[in-house]
């Protein structure tokens, strides 16, 4: 069992911690990565997670409260997620660095090295290396502790990346890979093959033309192509559809039954589609799904 503490640095309102033009607060990046790490780790066996910042971001939980919680819980590892800054306004320093305490404890150096390497490999950003610093979260923690600086908010290019979902996802995946390299945590067996639970059904149905219908509307409604509609209905003139006329439609859909600990993101990835598409196919208003729910994925 790996008892892991995650710490999104600062809070929403912490003064100064933002992109110089005000377009992003550092906590929003930190928290998004932490949430994604938690989401990915749901698919791993034998990992327990404690988040020590305020998940709403409203309170900037003091560093001593964060480390005290981790110590009391008996954590094995502490990962603090941050975005870097240098100088006033936008400046040139860029890249990723990971910190350990000044005494460079070997367990922390090992985890920091693995996470740092994965972050650099996953994002392609400059490798600033594993550094040491007398930061409270590294000094006051009784366990392996690292602090990742995932890019500079004060660098224009990296500020843009830090705001994007894809970069945040890459950082989260890299942190999980670094943990996997270090602690040999393993994916749950069920999580690795969601495809087995996907069923595809193809059904032919008749659509009665309503006033104003076009093949284009029908192609959107039934998620088929206009070409296919024309081929299946050779006798129908698509330019002069008659109200009440019957149109043959063959729709192919894939359904997936949600398993315990599934996430929309994981399901989308396994079916080579996007979260937005699945949400629209199923009329989902939020990312919340529950085991046993049948989702149309295609
Ligand atoms: Zn920070």
TrEMBL record:
Domain LysM, by residue range, is: 205-249, 254-297
Write out the GO MF terms.
N-acetylmuramoyl-L-alanine amidase activity
Enumerate the Pfam families for this protein: Amidase_3 (PF01520), LysM (PF01476)
The EC designation for this entry is 3.5.1.28
- Tell me the InterPro entries matching this sequence: LysM, LysM_dom_sf, MurNAc-LAA_cat, N-acetylmuramoyl_amidase_3
Q: Keywords in UniProt for this one?
A: Hydrolase, Plasmid
Q: Which PANTHER family match?
A: N-ACETYLMURAMOYL-L-ALANINE AMIDASE, N-ACETYLMURAMOYL-L-ALANINE AMIDASE AMIC
Recorded protein name is N-acetylmuramoyl-L-alanine amidase
Organism name: Bacillus carboniphilus
Q: What is the lineage of its organism?
A: Bacteria, Bacillati, Bacillota, Bacilli, Bacillales
